[in-house]
Amino acid sequence: MLKPSILLTPVAIAAAAMLFSKAAFAVSHDPESIQNKALKDVVAFEITEGLTTEVGQRQAGTEAEARARDWSVKKLKALGFQNVRNEPFMMPTWVRGAETAEVTVPYPQKFHVTALGNSASTGDAGIEAEVVYFDSLAAMQAAPDGSLKGKIAFVTHNMHRAQDGSGYGAFGPVRWNGPGIASEKGAAAYVIKSIGTDSHRNPHTGNMNFPEGVKPIPAGALSLPDADNLERIMKLAEKSKMPVAMKLVLTPQNIGEQESGNIIAEVTGRDPSKGMILIACHLDSWDLATGAFDDAAGCGIVTAAAKQIMDHGKPLRTIRILWAGAEEVGLWGGKAYAKAHTGSKHVIAMESDFGADNIWRVEFNLPDGAETVQKQIAQALLPLGIGSSGPPATGGADVSNIIASNNLAVIDLQQDGTRYFDLHHTPDDTLDKIDPKQMRQNVAAWTTVLSVIANSDIDFTMPSRK
Ligand code: ZN
Ligand code: ZN
Description:
Blueprint: H1 4-7, H2 10-28, H3 31-38, H4 43-55, H5 63-78, E1 82-95, E2 99-105, E3 109-111, E4 113-115, E5 127-134, H6 137-141, E6 152-155, H7 166-171, H8 173-176, H9 178-184, E7 189-193, E8 219-222, H10 224-239, E9 245-250, E10 253-267, E11 276-282, H11 292-311, E12 318-324, H12 332-341, E13 346-351, E14 359-365, H13 371-381, H14 400-406, E15 409-415, H15 420-423, H16 436-453
Parallel strand pairs: 5-6, 6-7, 7-8, 11-12, 11-13, 13-15
Antiparallel strand pairs: 1-10, 2-3, 2-9, 4-8, 5-9, 10-12, 14-15
Helix pairs in contact: 3-16, 4-5, 4-11, 11-16, 12-14, 13-16
The chain binds zinc ion (2 copies).
């Protein structure tokens, strides 16, 4: 053991201190050691559990989402983040009412249905009408104008599970665009096979919009097994030339402009001139469940990673956390954020909004000159089983507006979406579906990426902004 009184002159002490601080820095920002520590994270699950238990469902613009924001501000302050705040904005708000569906002719039976966001109301008495069946959105599009007058259009689809969730992009338009197309062709109402991949009697809700000038009509999603049953009924009835009729009751309401808000927290960096890294999720959920997968988990993951970085000492760049207040019912949170913060210097945007299962691939959209950093990240993610092939990163819904307005660099950590659309927007999106081990892998991957980009002094400005 050293005897300080004999061996350490002031010069030696200064040199030792320098050595020590360099060593400490090297250790504190070494992605690998940070990664190992992050694999023991408990904060991501704690946030997900808190939001789903102490708040519950939290549809944007409602009193529940306001409670979620209060909870979030308290939680983020308690975790030690800086500049924690709620940035309120107003948004048009739609709320669910009664919802029932039954075939009345020729084989009377009840189905499980849920209204799609922005659906019109059938009125309390409901609508009973003949059902017209299409096996794809394209088939309904090809139907002659006026041919659906007074009828209920029913469109099914063929979505399958996929690790990259690509079925959603392929079949999502049945929900997003179908109601408007049905209305333009004169339909009285529109029902779909839920955009999902499960086989439970849980209908999947989700947002849709009627194009400007198109009359809103009632629009609902049947659970997948019920939709399969309706398909069989339609095929049997067609053979025997019998009409099929359905009674639909959906009584949602537009309750006008209501307050939502974005929650922001920061890990302030050592050098503000280096710009901020924006990491996002959305705080709101659909009203059918507690939104554990979509997207309490995302908020838990990005925040836990930022905390890991914070706990290792101040990073070079500021990391800003955005819990967007409204995503499900329209990108109101992301739009309000971009409007308020376009002038701030952001350098990279990232988002987590695809559940909490293992990350399997990293994607980049970085400027020339960032190749070394990109390689370093790809290398550092290998121990977590994450590859780096794939298309350029595009970012998530809540950061899409600020990426577009500020032309930001993006890194995407793609989660395994194989079971995501079993749960998405259903009453089954609850805490028990989160696998804590996979969630910790997410936190470790996010922490790894943040530790590199928040401490690199590379200029991440995309070419057209220079
Ligand atoms: Zn989401
Ligand atoms: Zn969603």
